[in-house]
Write a structure and sequence with these properties.
heterodimer; A: Rossmann fold; two-stranded antiparallel sheet; 12 strands; about 35% helix; globular; B: alpha+beta; Alpha-Beta Plaits; about 10% helix; elongated; binds thiamine diphosphate; binds iron/sulfur cluster; binds magnesium ion
């Protein structure tokens, strides 16, 4: 049975220890529903590992392996090799996932290795844009201008000064057959992309944008609203790269984007861009870069790249 | 051959499995996280259109489909985040202060 376009079965049990309004917990519900019962999950250290397994309890109702911070992709490679040796690789889905710290930074070399070898599994990054579990440190996924404990805003600082790493195109350069950007704000779209990634043979990747109200200093009730707003402003465009070709889902019209300001001003991590005085130059810089980035994606899609 | 699944190590008084293998399944449900809550969702069942959108978005997965097809939070686990109330397309859910 399906409810709201998603399978009814639950594979993450209640009683997990995530903060109220945790977007990553909703992300995991989507990932496990897409994977289904014939799956082996591998996960790195991070919030979701910590909140789901207060030893000896576990929230998981699927086989789940906790790897070290950097190596869920290597463990997934091993599992996929074992399934192949047993001749059952088509019967069981291997799904590795990790936070953005694990994916964009610490585990990137291992992911690159697995993608270069062409190993058969899906990697999903639940991207909450910082190392949340250890106290909100900036990662390669933290966006420009966001204040974190290691990129603090202050009189001489506007928060993180580097742009977010483009992980999808890094992995696209490995010739992966399927890559996608998804957001928990659009659960059925995210579900379909994860299913496609799992059904496609070879190493596939989905970046699943997931609000962290604790780290972003946002209203927990707005976790989904924010995940939608990120898309509607073009900050997080939803797209796929299927066999090297871009398909842009949304947004598709640069002239109709909501202003990035609407998205920034409701998050404490960007508070310094509005107070004590509004930093027009920084906000405009973000606005222009967001437009440029979307224009580039649309151009790729139009020209068959 | 060693039967690893049944070998236990002792750390102090606690017995643990090799590799910290978890022997239960979904056992976090032992903890009733509803105690964390300060606000409680109240669903107006007359207004609920049975779409299940609240169910699909709740981080706890604690919204239950009732026999009549409508949806309601399991207050044993609901942490009171307010996502369901914010996202309900017909505004059938209201957050009210939890009285102690
Ligand atoms: C090699 C290594 N370095 C550092 C840590 C400490 N550590 C555990 S979780 C974590 C942050 C995880 O960040 P991310 O992957 O983004 O997941 P999140 O907590 O945000 O869900 C860190 C730094 C570790 N476990 N292993
Ligand atoms: S810190 Fe953020 S990601 Fe971690 S459990 Fe809390 S809300 Fe979720
Ligand atoms: S308030 Fe939050 S935790 Fe409670 S039922 Fe609604 S979405 Fe779930
Ligand atoms: Mg993170």
């Amino acid at each position: 049975m399906a409810i709201a376009g998603l399978p009814e079965e639950e594979y993450l049990s209640c009683g997990h220890r995530a903060c109220a309004g945790c977007g990553a917990a909703t992300a995991i519900r989507l990932i496990t529903k897409a994977a289904g019962k014939n799956s082996i999950l591998v996960e790195s250290t991070g919030c979701i590992e910590v909140i789901s397994t207060p030893y000896p309890e576990t929230a998981w109702k699927l086989p789940w392996i906790h790897g070290a911070f950097e190596n869920p992709s290597s463990i997934a490679s091993g599992i996929s090799a074992a399934l192949k040796a047993k001749g059952i690789e088509d019967e069981i889905n291997v799904v590795a996932f990790g936070g953005d710290g694990s994916t964009y930074d610490i585990g990137l070399g291992h992911i690159s290795g697995a993608f270069e070898r062409g190993d058969n599994f899906t990697y999903i990054c639940y991207d909450n844009e910082a190392y949340m579990n250890t106290g909100i440190q900036r990662s390669g996924a933290t966006p420009y201008g966001a204040s974190t404990t290691t990129s603090p805003a202050g009189r001489e600082s506007i928060g993180k000064v580097e742009w977010k790493k483009d992980i999808i195109h890094i992995l696209a350069a490995h010739k992966s057959p399927y890559l996608a950007s998804a957001s928990i704000g659009y659960p059925t779209d995210a579900f379909k992309k994860i299913r496609k990634a799992i059904e496609t043979k070879g190493p596939t990747f989905v970046n699943l944008f997931a609000t962290c109200p604790t780290g972003w200093r946002s209203d927990p009730a707005k976790s989904i609203e924010l995940a939608k707003l990120a898309v509607e402003t073009g900050v997080v465009p939803l797209y796929e790269i299927i066999n090297g070709k871009h398909v842009v889902g949304m947004p598709r019209d640069i002239s109709k984007l909501k202003p990035v300001e609407e998205y920034l001003k409701v998050q404490g991590r960007y508070r310094h861009l509005f107070r004590p005085e509004k930093k027009e130059m920084e906000i405009n810089f973000i606005q222009e870069r967001v437009k440029e980035n979307l224009a580039l994606l649309l151009e790729y899609a139009e020209t068959g790249h | 051959m060693i039967d690893f699944e049944n070998v236990k190590l002792k750390i102090g008084d606690t017995e643990i499995t090799i590799g910290a293998v978890l022997e239960s399944n979904g056992s976090t449900s032992n903890l009733k996280t509803g105690a964390w809550r300060s606000m409680r969702p109240v669903t107006d069942l007359e207004k609920c259109i049975s779409c299940g959108i609240c169910w699909s978005l709740c981080p706890e997965g604690c919204i239950i489909k009732r026999k009549d097809g409508k949806f309601e939070a399991d207050l044993d686990y609901c942490k009171g985040c307010g996502i369901c109330a914010n996202e309900c397309p017909v505004k059938a859910i209201t957050m009210v202060m939890e009285e102690k």
